[in-house]
Amino acid sequence: MNAPLIDPFARAISYLRVSVTDRCDFRCVYCMSEAMQFLPKKELLTLEELDRMCTTFIGMGVRKLRITGGEPLVRRDIMQFFKGIGRHLDSGALEELTLTTNGSQLERFAGDLYAAGVRRVNISLDTLDEDKFARVTRWGRLPQVLRGIDAAQKAGLQIKINAVALKGFNEDELGTITKWCASRDMKLTWIEVMPMGDLGGEDRVGQFWSLNDVRAAYAQDYTVTELAERTGGPARYVRLEETGQTIGFITPLSHNFCESCNRVRLTCTGELYMCLGQEDMADLRAPLRASDDNAQLEHAIRAAIARKPKGHDFDYSRQRADGQVTRHMSHTGG
Ligand code: SAM
Ligand code: SF4
What we know:
This protein is α/β, with parallel strands linked by helices. It has a domain at 15-161 and 258-332: TIM Barrel (Alpha-Beta Barrel). The protein has helices at 47-59, 78-91, 106-116, 130-137, 142-155, 174-183, 211-221, 285-290, 295-305, 329-332; strands spanning 15-19, 64-68, 96-101, 120-124, 158-165, 187-192, 224-226, 235-240, 245-250, 263-266, 271-273, 281-283.
């Protein structure tokens, strides 16, 4: 293996998130506009190129890979990619292969994912009400996702539900969603909505429901204990003592988590973003395509990691989405 990837702030980069497509079968209001323009297919890395990119990172010390999008499971032949990358789990070079999905295709793919070595999936779901689900995802249908969740559990996949906390939308479902996750033995994480992309007139500041308030809402019904557990990412965890449930909070706007950041993000076109909240990126597609040998690519990766910034600039103070990043979450792969 090559020398490990260490950034200028002595953080080891061991976690790569890869967006395999910018396309999606939903149009969540906080993520995409209804008339979203997608990239021409020729801009995308091929599945073989995605494999080579990931394999190179694994050779440089990446131990955890999360596949995301867009909706990763709508990319054509994506199971080929999962099966191929699974070889790094078999060899022990990779510790974990996971994905973040909206769940719509899980009924079809859960068994194949398990066979490829995936053991845990994050499923995004903000409401258990069919009408509200259709409203927030615009194109999504709740029963299909629930069937996907059933299939994933049947296949043996552990599930974490990611719910975006939306003021005036799912505040009243805090208890229902929490109990539903407990009854199905699924973890639950709340995500604070982030100011990303042009969403075609949606008022994103108005959608912001602070996770401090979510936590306070839990404290009305449960004894909430802060846990020390960290994952190197923006999640913090609490335990609800009455049920023993662990609840995660992803609060990129309220807390500084950057000091322990161990991750970088690759887009489906081969751009490497060193920080979710900054515009700086490195094009890895050109060095990848420049030669069959990986020397140029490895050089470009090291040069990019050497530019990883100390932290991000998101700030909702004064009710302005300061530090707003113009690209969509579906581009960088949330
Ligand atoms: N389509 C997959 C899904 O929905 O799980 C994977 C990609 S999606 C961009 C990844 C995560 O980003 C989802 O959990 C979604 O809720 C979250 N997300 C999208 N836009 C967001 C925003 N503006 N603020 C916070 N989270 C967002
Ligand atoms: Fe699609 Fe996920 Fe974005 Fe929703 S959050 S539109 S499911 S990429």
